[in-house]
Amino acid sequence: MSAAIETLQAALQRAMKGRPKVGGFPYLAETLRRAGVRINRWVLPACQSLYLTRFGPVVIQGTPLVSGPADVPAFDREALIRAIRTDQAGESTFPEFLASAWRAGVVQYDVDFELRVVTYYGAGGEEYVEAYPAVAVAEE
Fold first, then answer.
1. Which of 42-48's residues contact partners 24+ apart within 8 Å by CB, and which partners?
2. Which of 17, 55, 59, 120 has the most CB atoms lying inside 10 A of its own CB?
């Protein structure tokens, strides 16, 4: 196993252990940033996640949201914001968030851990950008 995979897996485990139910994303993001992850790119509906780390890129293939041919939903900014707020309130699981983002027309999103922003993209070039707050994470 590479140093990139080992470091990423350890950071994900730390983050999941200490992550609060409400507002947990900034905690996860800061834990990954401290571990050297610069960018996390999600491709929907494939649920493929690419982590660009200081040790090299790592891909994680999740369970796809659809199989076979599927129409891509139209980009719906308001539905996306509702999905984000529901997740931030701790009222959805991560797989539920991904499904909601897909139904809102998101085909990809990028998390920039250095700038602390998430950019969501629709198939027609639409974008929605949202910043997230810096949080304190206990050192291990």
1. 42/98, 42/108, 42/109, 42/110, 42/111, 43/107, 43/108, 44/98, 44/101, 44/102, 44/106, 44/107, 44/108, 44/109, 45/70, 45/102, 45/107, 47/98
2. 120
Specify whether domain 3-131 bears CATH 3.30.1810.10.
Answer: yes
pLDDT of residue 140: 56
Q: What is the pLDDT of residues 27-62, one digit of tens each?
A: 899 999 999 999 999 999 999 999 999 999 999 999
For 132, residues 6+ apart whose C-beta sits below 8 A from its C-beta are 25, 26, 29, 116, 117, 118
Which whole-number Å values give the CA distances from 48 to 11, 34, 65, in the listed order? Answer: 18, 22, 10
